[in-house]
Amino acid sequence: MIILIDQDGTLADFIGGFTEKWAAKYPEKTCISPEHYLSPRVLDHYSDEPREIVESIYSSPGFIFGLSPIEGGIEAVKEMAGIGYDVRICTAPLGLYKNCIVEKYAWVEKYLGQEFVKKVIMTKDKTLIKGDVLIDDSFQKGMLIPSWEHMVFDRPYNRDLSGIRLNGWKNWKDALHLLRDVYPQKS
Amino acid sequence: MIILIDQDGTLADFIGGFTEKWAAKYPEKTCISPEHYLSPRVLDHYSDEPREIVESIYSSPGFIFGLSPIEGGIEAVKEMAGIGYDVRICTAPLGLYKNCIVEKYAWVEKYLGQEFVKKVIMTKDKTLIKGDVLIDDSFQKGMLIPSWEHMVFDRPYNRDLSGIRLNGWKNWKDALHLLRDVYPQKS
For A56-66, how does the pLDDT look when each residue is reduced to its tens digit (9 = 90+)? Predict the structure, then answer.
């Protein structure tokens, strides 16, 4: 079973990291709390601000590498791999890719180890990647009908998405069992 | 039709770039001419040298970005995309990924434009990527049986590989027609 796992918003706390940096740099400006997000896209919530200053936060050197892991994610990935699942980190680069790409790899190396660096798949279009399940906080259409089932990593902003839902990493085994019950061909 | 195209050794002249830098930096040492390569792996040809000094050439900042395009490759990719093929650059990161990854993206942006940056798929295991054909100078086994047919980008070191062969970029249309004749389901 091939399990694809998204990075930002699923393993790494992108919005939390942005919020912290924003509040520290612009204490006088409005700061949107992560639980009030209505989409996974930071820019959607700061449309009154110049795009450049919002983007400069998360495209700065060190931002991606400095993101905190989302609770339980690293342990879950290691446990999955230990059991024998083929786990791949399936992540899209930011448009401003200069710092983000290498830092995504370095983040994986830091938290999951060097062997996992070989398991990163960096792609804008995840429908081109083969897998049985994609655990992801968001869903982007792509060129193809995906071979994977989307398991929605539950976040305040994605309650509208359909699909089997992972309510926090501690529940990954139950969610995977449910997926197999619903889609027996994914076993 | 989804056409996956490898980067190093297929679009970018990695071995040529290495050879030039090696000869300039170590004029007193043996330098293997690209036409005498027996594998796509530089290290295989410099096994008498300390691995670190060989690797330091191609992991240096600017090496990947500075690679010359292989003759006709950029024009071929642009023509394919213009005709309406879905072309993706499908490339594996070096083990020493620090400079290489972002420079691979920057190289694509330089020669193919910003829109093509979105079409890069960075993966160690290309068998996980969906496509009809993979044009690549080398073949690496992976986790899955590939959905693509391997079109061998002809190089002196890969004459042992079976598959439809692309003898220089100027012949891409003929090679693709041949592929379709042999595998009509790829049309």
Answer: 999 999 999 99
| Cβ <8 Å between A97 and B105 | yes
DSSP H or E run through B73: helix B73-83
Site from B4, B121, B132, B144 to mutate, A interface, most A CB atoms within 10 angstroms: B121
pLDDT digits (tens, 9 = 90+) for B1-43: 999 999 999 999 999 999 999 999 999 999 999 999 999 999 9
Cα distance between residue B145 and residue B135, in whole Å: 16
**Placement of tokens 């590989």 in the chain:** B161
Give Cα separations from A70 to A9, A10, A79, A154 (angstroms): 8, 7, 15, 12
Task: Provide the terminal-to-terminal Cα distance of chain A, rounded to the nearest Å.
Answer: 6
Identity of the amino acid at A106: A
Q: How far apart are CA B42 and CA B63, in angstroms?
A: 14
Question: How does DSSP classify residue A143?
Answer: S
Q: Which residues of A are identified as catalytic?
A: 6, 8
Among A105, A118, A130, beta carbon nearest to B144: A130
Q: Is A113 left (phi over 0), alpha (psi -120 to 50) or beta?
A: left
Task: Kindly provide the b/e burial profile for residues A92-117, where b requires at least 16 CB atoms within 10 angstroms of the residue's own CB.
Answer: bbbeebebbbbbbbbbbbebbeeebb
CB B134 within 8 A of CB B142: no
Burial class (CB in 10 A: 0-12, 13-18, 19+), B31: middle
Domain A2-13+68-186: CATH superfamily, name plus number: HAD superfamily/HAD-like (3.40.50.1000)
Helix (H, G, I), strand (E, B) or coil at A111: helix
C-alpha distances in Å from residue B128, one per residue of A86, A131, B21, B117, B144: 11, 8, 34, 20, 7
Q: Are strands A120-123 and B120-123 parallel, antiparallel or unpaired?
A: antiparallel
**In chain B, where the domains are located:** 2-13+68-186, 14-58
Q: Is the pTM of this model over 0.90?
A: yes
Q: How far is CA B10 from CA B79, B182, B184, in A?
A: 16, 23, 25
